[in-house]
Amino acid sequence: MPRRYDYILGDSRIESARLARQAALWDPISHALFDRLRIRPGLRVLEIGPGRGSLHAELRRRLRGPADAVEHSATFASALQSACARDGFGEGTIWQCGLADADLPAGRYDVIFARWVFLFLPDVPRHLKRLVRALKPGGRLAVQDYLRDTLSMVPRPTDWDAFLDADRAFFATQGGDVNIGAHLPTLARAAGLLVEEASPTIKTGGPGSREWRWMSDYFLGVLDRYATLGPLSKKAAARLRAEWLAAAREKSSLIVAPAVLDVVARKKRG
Ligand SMILES: C[S@@+](CC[C@H](N)C(=O)[O-])C[C@H]1O[C@@H](n2cnc3c(N)ncnc32)[C@H](O)[C@@H]1O
């Protein structure tokens, strides 16, 4: 585990804009999860890593009141605070720090929600322990995160295996696990939770589709960083980029994105 936690994607304007495009594609899937969780007035909700806050705004809208948040980025936390001050639903607590450092109250929350945060976290069992403590008895942890195993492209680029290794290595630099969704149900059970749901959404698309743009946006944006980590040489990364761009000109090409797994787990009542 690294001595100091750095969030590897940062909060630059480019990353913020990418998060906004990604949210536009994925927020309906999260809204459907909020429907299943029956987010409604009176519940106490904590969101971890809201980023630009589109889902935090939706949680507040459904609660008709505030939700709390833990957000590592000072830029995102301060923008969230300003947005929350404008919507009339009142002030929640925002911890601007990493989840490991947030002094969460014990037994407070009906729902703790996180989308695309757990894959960055080192030592997930330790984080889960803190979250279980913060849940009320009967409260639920709802996490949307990647089951990376489905990620593939047709036609398969020459260096795909090295690319997948580099993808894993990138998240591992800060102790994260890009495939955390695959392990969350087991880890949640080990933390004493009852797993109620593990449901996947797999987006696929060809050139010109929103799904292709979403995947290209992220992967072509980080490819140069992936090429510094070992499994994928600079030469291989350049070839992968060229083959990716060539595939984008062929209408029969296809990307199958990593599955997003909705994992819902409940704290026992007694
Ligand atoms: C990929 S973004 C996802 C943002 C948002 N949840 C969404 O789905 O659009 C990850 C977010 O988690 C935050 N984050 C990363 N590590 C964190 C940590 N250890 N504790 C709290 N927030 C963290 C980042 O600052 C960023 O806002």
Keywords summarizing the entry:
alpha/beta, binds S-adenosylmethionine, 270 residues, single chain
Task: Write up what this structure looks like.
The protein has 8 helices and 10 strands. It is an alpha/beta fold. The strands form 2 sheets. Strands 3-2-1-4-5-10-7 form a 7-stranded mixed sheet, with helices on both faces. Strands 6-9-8 form a 3-stranded antiparallel sheet, with helices on one face. Helix 1 crosses helix 7 (210-226). The longest helix is centred in the N-terminal third of the chain and has 25 residues, at 13-37. The mean pLDDT is 96. Bound molecules: S-adenosylmethionine (SAM). S-adenosylmethionine binds at residues 7, 9, 19, 23, 48-51, 70-73, 76, 98-99, 115-117, 120-121. Residues 7, 9, 19, 23, 48-51, 70-73, 76, 98-99, 115-117, 120-121 line the site of S-adenosylmethionine.
Cα-to-Cα separation, first versus last residue: 34 Å
Shape descriptor reads globular
Give, in order, the helices and strands: HEHEHEEHEEHHEEHHEE
Report the sheet-strand fraction. Answer: 15-25%
Gyration radius from CA atoms, angstroms: 19 Å
Helix segment tally? 8
How would you sum up the major sheet?
7 strands, mixed
Strand order across the largest sheet: 3-2-1-4-5-10-7
Bound small-molecule species: S-adenosylmethionine
User: Which structural class best describes the helix and strand composition?
Assistant: alpha/beta
Please state the average pLDDT score.
96
Number of strands: 10
Helix content: 40-55%
Residue runs with pLDDT of under 50 for 5 or more positions: none
